[in-house]
């Protein structure tokens, strides 16, 4: 999972790109980078948060140009090494720079094909490098020198026929313009925005609409599944839709991943979470539970928890205080166990919890380990009963499209029933929304629900699935994952 931004501006874009990346920092904290283009590509990238990679004014000094791309990386494919950090660019036989969000599922087959046919050396384990080379190959075959929008669209259509999985990408074509496209199903987000300045119209593409809020751009719309948008050097915008497949936007973006102030296809994420919360209220009632207070696991579950409380007619309170100053890079002394780590991040507020039946709402239950520690600390704070409520239905299948949901063997709901989950996390009750009712929240708007029901929108072989699971293990960071 990653955050991507592209700006086609009327003046230097480097500062705006760095600023915009902070709006998608939550999408990736392993690395960050910016590439700009004037007569050549100028790149600065590094490991860590945006503020760590761009800590000194000199970091953007050399980033000249009115066209640029930015990226925040969360490694689910490829290593966490700098070599795998985005953006990537190539200067020969013509200039291309690219950023990408998603996961190519036929990575191994494509890599083998590219290496044998073209004698290309694929230097990284990152699927972006493959996308870059395949696009270059297709552009070469239509003729880069006299490239027209029709030639570009034909190249991207040819790429889509070869590349399976999820990919939302933004590309700079040197001396030609800026290109953005989504896979057939539009699994990962990508939006288009613009701004009118005295110098003319500026264009931008981004993973989330909050980037446009930060930059003062107007959110025009989401790119359609299978859509390509090309802005030529005159600033003229060309569109092409290759819509052969059903849309399958990731439903987990609404539950957990996206910012609550982001808008996808005209729907505010916070509003989606409120509707999930109302559904949870019904599920809690159906389970015969009567909590005295509803709390959330900060901060993605806030809207679901407060809406659930409203639905049940009981108070919502903040019962866990989050320490926002413990980052991913925090060095954990080896003698500190996981329970203390959870408490360091989420400290219970005893007065809210003591003597009460407490319903805790979290966005999801993955392995159950974090839930177990939260339930224990809430109980130790004096709660008489503790109910764990998940905004997401039971997670039974791993994500192969770039969200780091654990391997199937580690998903507690994949291999165990509700009773087991309840005992494993030490709760008096565990409540999930019904999958069918959850799906109905998105009626008329096709989404991917594969991690709940196993229906992957793209064809994927057992071998590809195993290869993706191996990559997840290889790229797993040292600090414990969220769940
Ligand atoms: S499998 Fe789950 S997390 Fe992955 S894209 Fe589909 S809904 Fe999103």
Short summary:
With 483 residues, the protein is an alpha+beta fold. Helices cover 33% and strands 24% of the residues. A seven-stranded antiparallel β-sheet has the order 3-2-4-1-10-9-11. The chain has a six-stranded antiparallel β-sheet with strand order 5-6-7-8-12-13, covered by helices on one side. It has a four-stranded parallel β-sheet with strand order 17-20-21-22, sandwiched between helices.
Folded structure, characterized:
It is a single chain. The chain has 483 residues and is of the alpha+beta class. Helix content is 33%, strand content 24%. The chain is built from 18 helices and 23 strands. The strands form 6 sheets. A 7-stranded antiparallel sheet has the order 3-2-4-1-10-9-11. A 6-stranded antiparallel sheet has the order 5-6-7-8-12-13, with helices on one face. The chain has a 4-stranded parallel sheet with strand order 17-20-21-22, sandwiched between helices. The chain is globular. Mean pLDDT is 91; it is low at 477-483. The site of iron/sulfur cluster has 12 residues, from helix 8 and helix 17.
Layout of helices and strands:
Layout: E1 2-8, H1 14-21, E2 31-37, E3 41-47, H2 50-53, H3 58-61, E4 67-73, E5 88-90, E6 96-104, H4 107-118, H5 127-142, H6 149-162, E7 165-173, E8 177-182, E9 191-197, E10 200-206, H7 210-215, E11 218-222, E12 227-232, E13 237-241, E14 249-250, H8 251-257, E15 263-264, E16 267-268, H9 269-286, E17 293-296, H10 302-312, E18 320-322, H11 338-345, E19 346-348, H12 350-353, E20 357-362, H13 369-380, E21 385-390, H14 412-415, H15 418-425, E22 429-431, H16 435-440, E23 447-448, H17 450-453, H18 462-475
Parallel strand pairs: 14-23, 17-20, 20-21, 21-22
Antiparallel strand pairs: 1-4, 1-10, 2-3, 2-4, 5-6, 6-7, 7-8, 8-12, 9-10, 9-11, 12-13, 15-16, 18-19
Helix pairs in contact: 4-5, 5-6, 9-10, 11-13
Bound molecules: iron/sulfur cluster (SF4).
């Amino acid at each position: 999972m990653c955050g991507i931004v592209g700006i086609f501006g009327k003046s230097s874009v480097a500062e705006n790109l760095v600023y915009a990346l902070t709006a998608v920092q939550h999408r990736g904290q392993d690395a960050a980078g910016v590439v700009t283009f004037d007569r050549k590509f100028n790149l600065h990238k590094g490991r860590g948060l945006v503020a760590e990679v761009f800590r000194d004014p000199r970091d953007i000094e050399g980033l000249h140009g009115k066209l640029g791309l930015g990226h925040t990386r969360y490694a689910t494919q490829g290593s966490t090494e700098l070599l795998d950090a985005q953006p990537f660019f190539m200067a020969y036989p013509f200039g291309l720079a690219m950023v990408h969000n998603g996961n190519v599922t036929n990575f191994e087959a494509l890599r083998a094909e590219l290496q044998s046919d073209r004698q290309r050396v694929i230097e990284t384990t990152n699927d972006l490098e493959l996308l870059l080379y395949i696009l270059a190959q297709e552009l070469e075959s239509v003729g880069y020198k006299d490239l027209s929008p029709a030639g570009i669209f034909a190249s991207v259509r040819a790429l889509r026929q070869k590349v399976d999985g999820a990919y939302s990408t933004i590309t700079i074509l040197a001396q030609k313009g800026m290109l953005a496209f989504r896979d057939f199903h539009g699994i990962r987000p990508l939006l288009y925005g613009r701004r009118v300045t005295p110098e003319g119209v500026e264009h931008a593409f981004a993973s989330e609409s909050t980037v446009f809020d930060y930059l003062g751009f107007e959110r025009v719309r989401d790119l359609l599944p299978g859509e390509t948008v090309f802005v030529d050097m005159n600033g003229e915008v060309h569109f092409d839709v290759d819509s052969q497949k059903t849309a399958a936007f990731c439903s987990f973006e609404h539950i957990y991943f996206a910012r609550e102030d982001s808008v996808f296809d005209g729907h505010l994420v916070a509003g989606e979470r409120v509707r999930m919360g109302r559904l949870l209220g019904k599920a809690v009632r159906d389970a015969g539970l009567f909590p005295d207070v509803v709390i959330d696991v900060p901060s993605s579950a806030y809207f679901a928890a407060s809406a659930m409380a409203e639905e049940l007619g009981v108070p919502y309170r903040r019962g866990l205080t989050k320490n926002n100053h413990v980052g991913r890079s925090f060095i954990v002394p080896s003698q500190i166990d996981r329970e203390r780590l959870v408490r360091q991040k989420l400290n219970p507020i005893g007065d809210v919890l003591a003597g009460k039946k407490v319903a805790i709402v979290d966005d999801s239950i993955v392995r159950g380990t974090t839930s177990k520690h939260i339930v224990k600390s809430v109980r130790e704070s004096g709660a008489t009963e503790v109910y764990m409520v998940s905004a997401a239905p039971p997670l039974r299948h791993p994500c192969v499209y770039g969200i780091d949901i654990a391997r199937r063997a580690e998903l507690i709901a994949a291999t165990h029933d509700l009773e087991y989950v309840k005992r494993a996390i030490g709760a008096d009750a565990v409540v999930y929304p019904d999958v069918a009712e959850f799906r109905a929240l998105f009626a008329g708007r096709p989404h991917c629900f594969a991690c709940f029901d196993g229906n992957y929108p793209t064809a994927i072989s057992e071998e590809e699935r195993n290869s993706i699971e191996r990559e997840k293990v290889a790229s797993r960071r040292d600090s414990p994952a969220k769940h």
